[in-house]
Design brief:
Number of strands: 10
CATH architecture of the largest domain: 3-Layer(aba) Sandwich
CATH superfamily of the largest domain: Chorismate lyase-like
Distance between the termini: 54 Å
Largest sheet: 6 strands, antiparallel
CATH class of the largest domain: Alpha Beta
Strand content: 25-35%
């Protein structure tokens, strides 16, 4: 007859998780050693290591070779998706957090047919700019962004794109971000993503695939932002009917019928 009991390594990791959640092991605290856990639970070394691996996979602890296993900070950043649009750096600043980017690469590449279509470029467009950058909040990586930029924008602003977030940069140069179309889905971290984001290979990530437009529905950029689910929370408000007009006008508040402006998640 089959048992409903979970495997031993799962039962142990759940007990340790409950202790972490209850505050018995605050952030930065070292968990009991392998030997102590073996004695406490009367299990093998392999079982203990699998239990610890479960906690690492859940983002609760980090293992340092030769030093031990330590509880990670569990605070998450809340990113509002509600109108009116506020860019990511402004949203973080309102919460007392500092945002910066780490440019990983900015190069000219041959665009795929999909990129050409999204940017409304001729199919025979030889090159576009592709930027890969890490987005950090209070010096912790929260997302990796891959952006495709038309030559006209890349030629003019490539240097600043390597220092600053793209949307505020465009706005500072008089290029208004009017509308963003977005698709959100979950993916697993590939090797080239897991390393800069400091997550295990195959860890679940939230990916935002976007196309940003300026006036007259002219595409500006397209790309995807892969976010760590253990460090970023998205919040929004759903309401019937059309949104009420704000009491005071704010910049970047132009609303079009098809605009999903809250999808300006990270740029």
């Amino acid at each position: 007859m089959s048992s409903d009991r979970p495997p031993l390594h799962v039962a142990i990791s759940e007990k340790l998780k409950a202790a972490i959640t209850a505050g018995r092991f605050p952030p930065g605290t070292q968990l009991p050693s392998e030997h102590q856990l073996i004695e406490t639970y009367g299990v093998s070394r392999i079982t203990v290591r699998r239990a610890i691996a479960n906690l690492v996979q859940q983002g609760l602890v980090v293992a340092h070779r030769g030093k031990g296993v330590f509880v990670k900070p569990q605070g998450k950043i809340i990113r509002s998706l509600a109108n009116p649009l506020v860019f990511f750096d402004e949203d973080m600043a309102d919460q007392g957090l500092q945002t910066r980017i780490r440019n990983l690469s900015l190069e000219r590449v041959i665009p795929s047919p999909d990129v050409c279509a999204k940017l409304a470029l001729p199919p025979d467009t030889p090159l576009v700019y592709c930027q890969r950058k890490l987005i950090l909040v209070d010096e912790r990586p929260v997302a990796l962004d891959i952006t495709y930029i038309p030559p006209s924008l890349g030629d003019s602003h490539a240097a600043q794109f390597q220092r600053d977030l793209i949307y505020p940069t465009l706005e500072a140069h008089g290029i208004s971000v009017e509308q963003i179309e977005v698709l959100l889905e979950c993916v697993y971290a590939a090797h080239e993503v897991s390393q800069p984001l400091e997550v295990p290979l195959g860890a679940p990530l939230l990916v935002n695939r976007y196309v940003a437009y300026t006036t007259d529905h002219q595409p500006l950029i397209c790309g995807e932002t892969l976010s760590r689910g253990d460090r970023l929370i998205y919040a929004t408000i759903l309401a019937k009917g059309r949104p009420a007009a704000p009491d005071k006008p704010r910049r970047r508040e132009t609303v079009t019928k098809t605009t999903f402006r809250p999808a300006d998640i990270l740029l």
